[in-house]
Amino acid sequence: MKRVIRLPNRFARTTKRLLTEVYWLRTEQKALQMLEGRDHIGVDFFLVAYTALGGDRLIRLVRVFENSKKVASFWYLYRCDPKRIEQLLKVTGTQLSELEDLSDRLRVIRNKVFVHIDKQGVFNPSAIYQLAAIKGKSVQQAIEALWHVFSQLYREVTGTDFQYDEYSGDDILRLLELRARDPRRLG
Predict the structure, then answer these.
(1) How many other CB atoms are found less than 10 A from the CB of residue 32?
(2) Is the dihedral of CA 40, 27, 125, 141 positive or negative?
(3) Which of 74, 90, 100, 174 has the largest count of CB atoms under 10 Å?
């Protein structure tokens, strides 16, 4: 028999909402990996897609890790059930302190260049990104840890598994092949 936990409705709805965000984070992460290091021809679709996916991934991370009592984020779920969140994180090998650190780094970018344009930061936005020092490996590790946590919580609060399609990124390779055959068609 499946174990279903009865928690406040907001907890269940937040779990589902955040799991959906993390599903798209994983999907975008895969697409970014497939696009990384690929040649682009000026400002073509592949450069636009890479830039847009990177920005969307960043804003999704900001939403998931927003640390305010006014929002339903990872930190809301943590405040509701810290022991369960820590148990689920432990399985992934990710420490809560690592997610706190990433959350703090994201907040700097959010407040100074990404969501708001800081009047001092406008002189050197790239310096703020460099100061935040968010590395791809830590982002990917956080995404996979969140996927595990939210998938398990979803299973516990709904009694079902989250339904989704796994994205392979193979379509990016096919588009690149088409462009290589006829550059005028895709770039």
Answers:
(1) 20
(2) negative
(3) 74
Question: Cα separation of 59 and 38, whole Å?
Answer: 24
What is the number of other CB atoms lying within 10 angstroms of the CB of residue 53? 18
Burial (CB count <10 Å: 0-12, 13-18, 19+), residue 120:
exposed
The Cα–Cα gap between 133 and 140 comes to 14
Over the stretch 93-119, which tens digit does the pLDDT of each residue have? 999 999 999 999 999 999 988 888 889
CB distance 24 to 145 below 8 Å: no
DSSP notation for 148-160: HHHHHHHHHHHSS
- Maximum pairwise Cα distance, the chain: 59
- How far apart CA 87 and CA 70 sit, in angstroms, is 25
Report which DSSP code applies to 1. Answer: -
**Dihedral sign from CA coordinates of 88, 94, 29, 130:** positive
Query: Global pTM?
Result: 0.86
